[in-house]
Design a protein that fits this description.
Layout (H helix, E strand, L loop, with lengths): L2 E9 L3 H9 L1 H7 L12 E5 L9 E10 L3 E8 L2 E12 L2 E11 L1 H27 L2 E2 L2 E2 L5 H9 L1
Antiparallel strand pairs: 1-6, 2-3, 3-4, 4-5, 5-6, 7-8
Helix pairs in contact: 1-2, 1-3, 2-3
Amino acid sequence: MARKIRFEALYPHPLKDVWSALTDSDAMAEWLMPNDFAPVVGHKFQFRTKPAPGFNGVVDCEVLAIDPEKRLAISWRGGGIDTVVTFDIAPTSGGTKLIMEQTGFKGPRGLMVSTILKGGWKRMIEQRLPAAAARFRNGVYRADPGDDLAQCHKDV
């Protein structure tokens, strides 16, 4: 039986900003891992991180589906697993709802890796992704979240 990881989260950020955090390579590097992602179906890319026992630090991916401001699906291969990660988002009255799933974990190794990854995804979904989304305004990335305040004082 295949195992999956699933998280749901509500963010107080507009849909466009959450989508941007999910599909902007620089933002993804901030909340997930350094990468060469491009939001184009069929684009092959890699996430890179520090190697660990049984994992060379490289996740080979391909963009499988993009439905702008609704869904991103990517293949996720590395460390002995071959899975699919999907992010579905929808507007809510207070911001954006996200559902993240990673499916296709098989066998004892899949069970072990999914257990390890679940803790990392929890931190990413609950803390790091919303922090990256907060750095956008109408889909435009701000290098420093304090930029708006600094610009406001500069204009006075």
